[in-house]
Amino acid sequence: MENDTRDDHNKVGWRSFGILDVARVISGLLLANAILSWFFTSSSTWGYDGKWINPSYLTFRMRNNFVNLTLDELAKYDGQNKALPLYVAINGSVYDVSVSRSIYGPGGPYSKFAGKDAARAWVTGCFGKPDEFTYDLREIDEKEASDAIQTWQDFYNSHRKYWYVGTVVHEEITGPPPEPCEHVGYPG
C-alpha cells in the first residue's frame, strides 16, 4: 500500500513539470548568463557586438527577404531616406551596411558607394572620377577585376556587422567605357 502511494506521487510530480517550468529554467539561465557577462565584460553579450544581436539582421534572417533590385530601385537605398536600409553593391551582390550610416550615408567618406553597384571603383580605387562608380568593368584586366571584386565581396560577406541581402540586375552596357584611370589601389 505504501509503495502504491509513492508511485502515484512520483507520477504526479513528473506531470506537473511542464512547458512553463522549462521556460522558467531557460529564462533563469539566460538571466544568469547576462548578469555574469555584465559583471565580467560590462556587456550582456560577453563583448560580442555583431550582426547576430542586430534586430534588423535577425528579422531579415527569419523572413528570408532576399532582394532582387534594378539599378533604379537600388538607388533608393543610398541613405537619403533614413526609413530605408543602406545598401552597397559589388558586381551584382547587394549588402546591407545600415549600421555604418556615418561611413556610407550622406556626407560619409564612402557615401559615393551607397545605392549603387560601383564595382569599377572598388577595383580601380579611383574615387575622384564620377564615371568610375559603375558596374562597367570593360577595359580592366579580367584577373585584376576578379581578384579585387572577390576581396571586397569576402570583406562584406565575413564582416561582423554587414550582410548579403540579394542581387542587383544590371542593364546592358551601352556606349564607350569610362576613360582609363590610374589605379590607386585600396583606400586606407
What does this 3D model show about the protein?
The chain has 188 residues and is an alpha+beta fold. The chain folds into two domains: 2-41; 51-169, Flavocytochrome B2, Chain A, domain 1 (Roll). Helices cover 41% and strands 10% of the residues. It is built from seven helices and four strands. The protein has helices at 2-15, 19-41, 55-63, 71-75, 101-104, 119-124, 142-158; strands spanning 67-70, 87-90, 93-96, 163-169. β2 (87-90) and β3 (93-96) form a beta hairpin. The mean pLDDT is 84.
Features:
2 domains, elongated, 188 residues, alpha+beta, 4 strands, four-stranded mixed sheet, 41% helix, Flavocytochrome B2, Chain A, domain 1
Q: What is shown here, in short?
A:
This protein has 188 residues and is α+β, with helices and mostly antiparallel strands.
